[in-house]
Batch of 2 targets.
Target 1
Amino acid sequence: MTVRAGRELLSIPGPTNVPDEVLSAMHRPAVDIYTGSLVEVTMSLLDDLRGLFRTRGRTYIYAANGHGAWEAALTNVLSRGDKILVLESGRFATGWGAMATTLGADVEVLPGSYTHAVRPAEVEARLRIDTGHEIKAVLVVQIDTASGVVNDIAGIGRAIRAAGHPALFMVDAVASLACMPFEMDTWGIDVAVAGSQKGLMTPPGLSFVAASERAVSAHRHANMITPYWDWTFREGEEHYQKYCGTPPEHLLFGLRKAIDMLKAEGLPAVFERHRLLAGATQAAVAEWSKGGTLDFSILDPAERAPSVTTVLWNGETSGQPLKALVDYARDKCGVVLGTGIGALGGRAFRIAHMGHVNAPMVLGALAVVETALSALAVPHGSGGVQAAIAHLARNVKP
Ligand SMILES: *Cc1c(COP(=O)(O)O)cnc(C)c1O
């Protein structure tokens, strides 16, 4: 027996739910790539991306996923042999760093963990001893979707300046743009990357890079540049050059609608919605964790991300495999949970509250997790959903 008929609820941290309005905006004939509406859409998107990243710098749109934006960011500003510092706080900054190694950079990882955010003081201390300014760039993620951490990007920017270090500051905002504040210029960020399929509520296949003046200067001397990602070619006169070929038209129409929806809601309201739904999720997990089997990956509540919650599974105290929980939620109840990745593979599950989400979706996902915990007799504190409801009732004013 199951109770899963109807629309499946995708609660993984990307791709996220695509609004019907975005799907509808994509349902149209292909259009000319040299004139007309597509050119206007490109120009409006490049401009709105500046607004989302909060920069007066340049923005680029790639027909690629987040990994493409990673490669675009690295190859446009670095040269082979450049030393870069990667700030670990889960899986993604180190993944970006591994890509940089393959491209010929000399990568040093500032060790971190899946339990806490990057410590800005440690960044400052490392940069201070680099008196010869060998380090050319610092790489970090704002939200790491593996650990569920949110890093203090403003604080890390201050640490770089406090050390008086000229390294480029490169930030992955794939799982945080349009989920929480991001202030590229104010925080001193030189290169920022994001993708379409997380907070931006659009199908996977587009990614974005924003570049400061300093990044553009570095680009002029960089020797890692390859043709497809090259900013200079993309600055050319012809519209197709913006995409180094045929534009991903339908994704662009979808993104246009998604950004219009974000603007209609208002970015501060979008951020607040994420914060509230994250708070509800955290309230539920805090109750469940009283049973000893489940726990937060991130120890300090202030460092838990507003777009995804990573829940540790303490195998020693449980007779039930984690896989049974994820399978039950999907196969019996129609909720797809994220599984643990990176160092937490097989040791965690993830509940996304990212992008096009509202109270019934998140409360529904939490209720299904609690149903699965009960059905599988996993030791857990009961009343997680009640705590989530109480959190919303307390914080969402009439
Ligand atoms: C999803 C994600 C990526 C990778 O994006 P893809 O589109 O899967 O290549 C990079 N960084 C973070 C923080 C992510 O969450």
Note: The chain is about 40% helix and 15% strand.
Target 2
Amino acid sequence: MIRNELQERLNSWAHVLDADGDVQAACPHDCPDTCAMRVTVKDGRAVAMHGDPTHSLTDGTLCTKVSRYAERTYHSERLQTPLRRVGNKGEGRFVPISWDEAITTVADRLAEVWRHNPEGILNYSYAGTMGKVQGEGMSGRLWHALGSSRLMSTICAEAGSSGMKMSMGASVGMDPEAIVDARLIILWGTNPVTSHVHLWAKIQQAKRAGAQLWAIDPYASDSAQKCHHHIALRPGTDAALAYAIAHVLQRDGQLDHDYLARHTTGAEAFLLIASEWSPACAAAYCGIPEAQIEALATAYAAARPAAIRLNYGVQRNAGGGDAVRAILALPALVGHWRHPSGAGGAALSTSGWVPRNKTLERPDLLGARNPRWLNMSTIGEVLTRTVPPVEALIVYNSNPVAVAPDSAMVRAGFARDDLFTVVLEHFQTDTAHYADIVLPATTQLEHFDIHSAYGHLHVLLNRPAVAPLHLARSNSRIFRELAAALRLRLGDDCPALHDEALRASDVDLAADAFDWNHPALSGTTTEQLLTQGHARLAVARAAPFAEGGFRTDDGRFHFTHPVHGAPRVWPNRESPDSALAQTYPLQMISPPPRHLLNSSFANVASLRALAGDSHEPTVVLHPLDAANRQVGAGDTAIVFNARGQTRAKVVISERTRPGLAVVFAVFWHTHTAGGSNVNALTSQALTDHGEGATFYDCLVDVKPG
Ligand SMILES: Nc1nc2c(c(=O)[nH]1)N[C@H]1C(S)=C(S)[C@@H](COP(=O)(O)OP(=O)(O)OC[C@H]3O[C@@H](n4cnc5c(=O)[nH]c(N)nc54)[C@H](O)[C@@H]3O)O[C@H]1N2
Ligand SMILES: Nc1nc2c(c(=O)[nH]1)N[C@H]1C(S)=C(S)[C@@H](COP(=O)(O)OP(=O)(O)OC[C@H]3O[C@@H](n4cnc5c(=O)[nH]c(N)nc54)[C@H](O)[C@@H]3O)O[C@H]1N2
Ligand SMILES: [Mo]
């Protein structure tokens, strides 16, 4: 489609508000499912949200959280006006100011910092919305024009995506929806009942048709409890388990030698290591029965097609990237990718299938400048130790004070008096408490956007259903206005600020989000997107790698890497075998509860009223560990280590292993008794690949509170 027509058609999407009736929208949240939604509007007010029945994965239903999105939008605590801090940082005392004063204050300060050190400016943003327009569309252009410090977006998925890139060349794999046809499904470090319930519906469909379900998870998660088999390994030992499965496949003559020879490289080196990981050896290391490894390997070789759904829970520890590489090796060893249904292989992220336009954020505006990179997973260290220091921080689409590891250091950084902090938000979050200026942002019901997904192969549009509430402005508008204000102040010294890219409308940004000439967005796909608001990319569902064709340079699956060799079995940084375990003997993981979305929704009363892990912070302990510490069910306990502590209500259950504490996350600090959530305990250590966060690599102890 020619660009003018595309823009015109997108324009009609962005600007028509149905007075009464249903408005087509997309769920903005950081979840693999990215649902197509319908918003019922009455008298200019959104009154109900529904899943779109025409979208194959959404299939007419929304999760419990997002069906409350209108409650969140019309929440009495929504930020209404720009605010200026009058109290101490972190205290939460602010006064309302006008937008003029807010933009002037922010632009003056950014210009002042820029004049002596452009790298003194840093953005902190993640996937509060996954939309291309309200995400980094306009903001990315501004940071590139200014040449400010660049943020490494590592807090969630970078270890796994690096591992996937090393093995397969990109974040590609099975179409997750193809899983309905699998005969055996392994849920490896993922809890879809909680974290992407629409895929769970497809898995259930496969189960009803006779598929055998296995969960590999240290905790008997809601999903693991619904599987036929559950392997409750010690956290961070997945690579050893994968090697032991490979050991059995090799020993029992189950390798697909033809596939290995034609479509892979490095199998010999991988299999040599596997030969050392006998089931007995791995069983001892992983803390599981040897018979489970034998049974899983045998079933995995026999079932056709067999699918592995691995997700990010598996890679939040020291060896996360190599664990993903070792797991991805399994379908290549037995040729599961060959199955014509497309239900054989592995699915982590689908983002590599999306024909993204890599110039949306206009990195070319940097010219010859090469600003430093700073890692969001170590924001505590970045703000307290980096030289020259970060002097201005602009936070949007994220709540780092609550979600980043090692809260004490994060808070010390945000509390710096010489740091100027701006927070664009819906609510007065833990992070907004530390802002100098708070700017009220629109929600997905109030702005336009375009989306792709990381757990399915569709693209979606989001039409604003209602006008912005109060004085809220969209991220894209705020960054456009800031760019204009900075152009006035710095234009002659920073020519990139004059670029047209900084005047782009939301529709221009949407038109720049994808490569519309790519075959995956063929004419009919784009037409469908523009008429029904969502469309499946024209990517073959069936067996993308049956004949190789991986995204690596040579099209082969890579068992080894030229620099890093074969995947290693890394001990956790905070391993139960380490000296630290003498003082803090429990391993702690902090996965998501069902009705919160990272730290979003933590302030929605009707969700918090539901019983269970989203009601209040809890710590799940094995009966033996609880008895040893004299804590009883329902007591408040203190979970602690050298970095800090948090209070949580004790749940005693055999759903966890002896030696493993499970604390569901992420509640706001301000909602937690004692004022510190679980990230007071987590560390800023990084993963083997991708410099990702290691939230689930953490030793603690528990005492009565
Ligand atoms: N309801 C809800 N949904 C969400 C989110 C949310 O907060 N709430 N967050 C969204 C985001 S940002 C993401 S990244 C995804 C995350 O969703 P998933 O990728 O499913 O990952 P997690 O929920 O982090 O962890 C899944 C499981 O991994 C297990 N696990 C922990 N450590 C290990 C280990 O070492 N090995 C193995 N095998 N398993 C381990 C945990 O016990 C947990 O049950 O979910 C998204 N969806
Ligand atoms: N202990 C522990 N910590 C974790 C995790 C864990 O499993 N355990 N999970 C980690 C993972 S996987 C992730 S991805 C991170 C997620 O961490 P974040 O990306 O920070 O996600 P949220 O906590 O949901 O915060 C998103 C914020 O963006 C705001 N927001 C939403 N839409 C908009 C918008 O359009 N404009 C503006 N300006 N703001 C908006 C929301 O109000 C919300 O406060 O947390 C990590 N932290
Ligand atoms: Mo995430």
Note: The first strand starts at residue 21 and ends at 26.
